[in-house]
Amino acid sequence: MTVKVAILGFGTVGEGVYRTIQTHESELEALLGKKVEVAAVLIKNNQKERKIAKDVLITTDFNEIINLSQLDIVVDAIVGKDPAFNYLKQAIERGCHIITANKEMFAHHGKELLDLAEEHQVSIGFEATVAGGVPIIQTLRQLLKVNRVQQIQGIVNGTSNFILTEMREKKQSFADALKLAQEKGFAEADPTNDVEGFDAFYKLMVLSRVAFGNAPNWKAVERVGITSITSDLIETADQLGFRFKHVVSIQKEGDKLIGSVRPVLVSKSHPFYHVEGVENAVNVFSDIVGRITLQGPGAGMFPTASAVIEDLVYVSQSNQQNKLQTNPVIEVLPLAAGSVNNFWLISGVSKTELSPSIHPVDQVSDQTFIVETTDEEILQKAKEFPSLSYYPILDGTQILQNKKEYLTVTI
């Protein structure tokens, strides 16, 4: 008995999957009781030389793959919504299990694919769509058997995390840190998806679907990138004992979901404080186990391939246990939902412009302050002053409460 696999795309992820299947052949056979073989690879450029065995079908035509006499699993390592979505639909309709590392496609079409997979009695693996080598999807599946997840926070884009780390550690400008990320292959020539938060946003949609059975209305989730963060702000945060991190967050409050993708500040007490470089981390809070944090490499050939191979084992052994929970429609609110006081680092306005609604806890410079106020007040002030930048401080309550005790009223 043999499991026949097709790999769609042979870039970093596709090649990593192929090489891992070759190097872990005996482990996979021991786990599954069957040999796993790559039957076909879909490529874009048939002029490029690749290190693929001669008995593997290498083609630019998906029809040749879908019409193979035996095809058990299709691995999607393509970038973008199309044509990946169309290919995976055809694979499911043929009766193949599918595995995808394509977060943009799955964020847009995951529910449709899951419904189609249920109809055709096949399974879908999508661990590699979020945080590369961090097994958050499988962890959530296990937690959800008993626990009720209430909040997820994550650093899920290694490029942005690398840039912020370089800016702080090497005192670099955003432009210089981005250039280094591009030279190292962490960022694309067009880095918009990473630095403006789109990549993280897609991953948040996937996490939300798994944890809460619903994906928010995309327009209701605040998405802010890291391009507004200057070297001065990085240094100010460092002096105050905080670090900038680009964090996705979604939490359930009653029958509402509150989601955001934005830069935040964390102190040494927060598990994200020491997540540096291209590392990813996801923090999950649930009603029984409490808070758990998973950390690991967020991208790269073999971390992502690891997630795909784990899914290969999962879908091969699954008996339709991968159906996600389905909850009633949940109202999804943006940042402005909160009315509780929180601490913020804000920049770009004077103390006079803050008054009378917002009073600083600390004045860092002429136009940079720490304030304690509500989400609504911050958003209202941002409407009044488009130059205002604001960054929530996730866990600085005790630090800043102590600071309030000795600050003078002259700030």
Structural account:
The chain has helices spanning 12-23, 25-32, 62-66, 84-94, 103-119, 136-143, 158-169, 174-183, 192-195, 198-212, 231-239, 301-317, 351-354, 375-384, 397-406; strands at residues 2-8, 35-42, 57-59, 73-76, 97-100, 124-125, 149-155, 222-223, 243-253, 256-266, 279-286, 290-297, 331-333, 342-347, 360-365, 368-373, 389-392. The chain folds into three domains: 2-125, 3-Layer(aba) Sandwich (Rossmann fold); 136-298 and 325-333, Dihydrodipicolinate Reductase, domain 2, CATH 3.30.360; 338-406, Alpha-Beta Plaits (2-Layer Sandwich), CATH 3.30.70. The model is unreliable at 325-333 and 405-411 (pLDDT under 50). It is α/β, with parallel strands linked by helices and 411 residues long. Strands 7, 8, 9, 10, 11, 12 and 13 form a seven-stranded mixed β-sheet that branches. A six-stranded parallel β-sheet has the order 3-2-1-4-5-6, sandwiched between helices. Strands 15-16-14-17 form a four-stranded antiparallel β-sheet, sandwiched between helices.
